[in-house]
Design a protein that fits this description.
Helix content: over 70%
Order of helices and strands: HHHHHHHHHHHHHHHHH
Structural class: mainly alpha
Distance between the termini: 18 Å
Number of strands: 0
Shape: globular
Largest sheet: none
Number of helices: 17
Radius of gyration: 20 Å
Strand content: under 5%
């Protein structure tokens, strides 16, 4: 841990301008690849009708990219520790172009769509590239807000929910061509403008050993559980909310996509707020309060209120709580992880967060197919959020870097 303290760029004065340039590039790249990652979900209703899918098959189709993108963060985070974001950001962005374009010929085959969805998961791995990049450039006192701003890139889900069906109205293949073009432009710019912090610690050990070391840290799995609730909830509703609104409330696809985009936008806005609050308060307290709010909102929604106004308020409060928690959890990650291991730990924590988004759409689809009700799914979410609230308050307030000097006292926000 001492090495991380001495090498932190933030302890030697003002934040360099390169830090803000890299923050902007990372956030834009994160947003674009997340849009690509979520291309299937806003059009899932069309695929269901064209391919004659059941609710479970539709849920599986939108969940496969989430699963692959989540698990892919583990090796991508470790590779970022080794090779740096300067290489990984343009490389992953350019490779994501391929599955985006493959969505065009695959559209009439469910099997082909599942295969392309698997490849599309690559777009969800850039989270594990941006976190170590931003973490290395910013000081501890400003890191929570910076990581929260980077987290706003998950607004790519909102962009996808809002723009993808509208662009598709002008041509079935147009959304894929637009996103592919944007990724090509970004990859070229990232190759020039993204830079790793000079003197960043580069691990010399193997990928497997670094992942093993990160996996042995208790805090890795504690934060993974909290992030699986916070960010997992965001991803789950990002991909499934349009289906829920169309199925339960009978909204038109465009209206459902617009409201789902509003939900995602709220999570985007509140993520940097969670980071900003964590710079001033203990991030565990912020996490506990945010998950408590999400739990209460989920309970309200479980009683199937009318969409206007109670359902809308409950869903937006849920979005605010989950977004805030997502920002505060990674503020805590940056406090307790050695700089050289941030990518590896981020990969694992990010993977668990994404997996937290993989399971709920499947559960919601299966429950609705069996019971024609979503109430059980919302009650399960409220139970998980409440458990996270209690654990964050009771245990994570005393979380400390493993091996830290006990005389330093508890971590401060």
């Amino acid at each position: 841990m001492e090495t991380a303290v001495k090498e932190s760029p933030a302890r030697v004065g003002a934040v360099p301008s390169a830090a803000y340039r890299n923050l902007v590039m990372a956030t834009v790249g994160f947003g674009l690849t997340f849009w690509a990652w979520n291309l299937i979900a806003p059009l899932a209703g069309d695929y269901k009708g064209r391919l004659g899918l059941t609710s479970f098959e539709q849920s599986l189709l939108v969940a496969v990219p989430v699963l692959v993108g989540s698990l892919g963060r583990i090796p991508v985070g470790a590779l970022t520790d080794r090779y740096g974001a300067r290489l990984m950001f343009p490389l992953v962005s350019a490779l994501t172009v391929l599955p985006v374009l493959l969505l065009i010929p695959a559209r009439d085959s469910y099997g082909a769509m599942l295969v392309v969805g698997f490849l599309l998961g690559l777009g969800g791995t850039t989270f594990a590239i941006g976190i170590p990049l931003v973490n290395s450039w910013f000081p501890p006192a400003k890191r929570g807000l910076a990581l929260g701003v980077f987290g706003m890139g998950m607004g790519g889900v909102a962009l996808s929910g809002y723009f993808t069906p509208r662009i598709a109205a002008h041509g079935d293949n147009l959304p894929f061509l637009v996103v592919a073009g944007a990724l090509v432009v970004y990859a070229a710019l990232a190759a020039v403008l993204v830079s790793d912090r000079p003197g960043r610690p580069v691990p010399a050990t193997s990928l497997a050993r670094r992942l093993g070391t990160a996996g042995r840290l208790r805090v890795t799995w504690e934060l993974s559980a909290l992030y699986a609730i916070g960010f997992g909830g965001i991803v789950a509703f990002g991909v499934y909310l349009p289906t829920y609104l169309k199925t339960w409330y009978g909204l038109a696809p465009t209206d459902a996509g617009t409201r789902a985009a509003g939900f995602a936008l709220v999570t985007v806005v509140f993520r940097p707020i969670g980071g900003w609050l964590s710079d001033r308060l203990h991030p565990a307290l912020v996490t506990a309060a945010a998950l408590g709010l999400a739990a209460l909102a989920a309970i309200v929604q479980a009683f199937d209120p009318t969409l206007a106004p109670v359902g809308t308020i409950a869903l937006l409060c849920m979005a605010a709580g989950l977004g805030t928690a997502s920002g505060s959890v990674f503020a805590l990650v940056s406090q307790v992880t050695p700089q050289a291991q941030v990518g590896s730990v981020t990969g694992i924590v990010g993977a668990m967060g994404g997996l937290g988004g993989f399971v709920p759409p499947l559960v919601m689809g299966a429950i609705y197919s069996a019971k024609e009700s979503y109430s059980i799914g919302f009650m399960l979410l409220s139970d998980l959020a409440l458990a996270g609230c209690v654990y964050a308050y009771g245990r994570m307030r005393s979380a400390r870097p493993e091996g830290a000097d006990t005389a330093r006292g508890p971590l401060s926000g």
